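REQUEST
  id: r-88c1
  op: predict_structure
  target: NADPH:quinone oxidoreductase
  payload:
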Amino acid sequence: MHAWLCTEPTGVEALAWTELPTPTPKPGEVLVEIRAASLNFPDLLMVQNKYQIKPPLPFVPGAEWAGVVQAVGDGVTHLRAGQSVACLSGTGGFATHVVAPAAHCMPLPEGFSHVDAAAFIMTYATSHHALVDRAQLRAGETVLVLGAAGGVGTAAIQIAKAMGARVIAAASSSDKCDLCLKIGADAVIDYSQEDLREALKALSGGNGPDVIYDPVGGELSEAAFRSIAWRGRYLVVGFAAGPIPALPFNLPLLKGASIVGVFWGEFAKREPQANAAMMEELALWYGQGRIKPVIDRTMPLSQLPAAFAHMASRSVMGKLVLVT
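RESPONSE
  id: r-88c1
  status: 200
  body:
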């Protein structure tokens, strides 16, 4: 097998395409031939030694992937050789083969493409957990999605619409706003050209959004929070912009609003049964055509450094997927 090996987390340039022995699955594990692996922002942070999870060196980056089971270890009964699966393993995805815990692998129903599956778990699980579980979103409410053209943003738009909400999508260019409208947003704000607070006031009749989904952080967060509706819920999803915002505590007081943390990974560990039920619902929605990953482009796995450069340019709309 071959893999992009990180021997020192000093950046993308330190990754090397390396031949390694093909591993044998241990009890409870499966060996999977990878067909597609998606690029996520944490993958970049991990090879730069900037992520909260720091795997022991050397490691193969690539948190999320899909492929075909080649062999199963002892005790694995729910998966078999030849079966297609998707997995969010944290590492190991930027390779031709990977060994992963069988319990972490999601069997793919008929018709679920490997490319879509590789771009599915992290974004849709995060957005479903945020909107359904943490925000308790109700039909008829208004949701503002910041960074709406990215992976989690596009998933949030689709999930909010599937739940009967009105969606205002905010993004950083007209092209990104056009994409958001195409996948179901009711209104858009190009915050590179428009004042976010004024646009929200106009689009919400002065009431503001009931739920704000924020995977971006940075300078937009306070402006967005100042626009939130009475009893609104502000979802802290991530900080793709870099800076972690600091909000004055009088703002949630004045609006009777809640600041709600979203950490899907910890939810999945602590509440596995609830997480499994959520993934079943998401797979059902995919089969019904209610949700579908937005794929910016596919690139050969051999072009991983170029894929990282494209992601770092912040021009990706939806997800970028590497294929073998």
